[in-house]
Specification:
It contains two helices and two strands. By secondary structure, it is an alpha+beta fold. The chain has one domain. A two-stranded antiparallel ribbon has the order 1-2. The termini are far apart. The model has no long low-confidence stretch (mean pLDDT 95).
């Protein structure tokens, strides 16, 4: 496990993890969300900005999970259709 230092909304955090690239990417996403929220609501306290950033990020995650689930169901339907077609072709021989 490695320690990495990241900057989020003007504060420095020392984090530990196995994938430092992923940690940096995650910190960048949160930092971006917090910067966006603070630009729209500059009078909000940092804790409120952090919660709103977490909610925005969770909403993005849920959207991606739904998209992934839909794509998986579509792939499954296509594979079922292909399997049925192959089965029909094999029965014709």
């Amino acid at each position: 496990m490695q320690t990495i230092t990241v900057q989020i909304h003007g504060s420095e955090y020392k984090l530990r993890g196995d994938d430092t690239t992923r940690i940096q990417e995650a910190a960048g996403i949160i930092n971006e969300q917090m910067r966006f929220i603070s630009s729209k609501a500059p009078t909000q306290p940092p804790a409120t900005i952090a919660v709103l950033a977490a909610l925005n990020t969770a909403e993005l995650l849920i959207g991606e999970q739904e998209r992934s689930r839909t794509e998986l169901q579509d792939c499954s339907r296509r594979l079922d259709g292909m399997a049925a077609s192959i089965h029909e072709l094999l029965e014709m021989e």
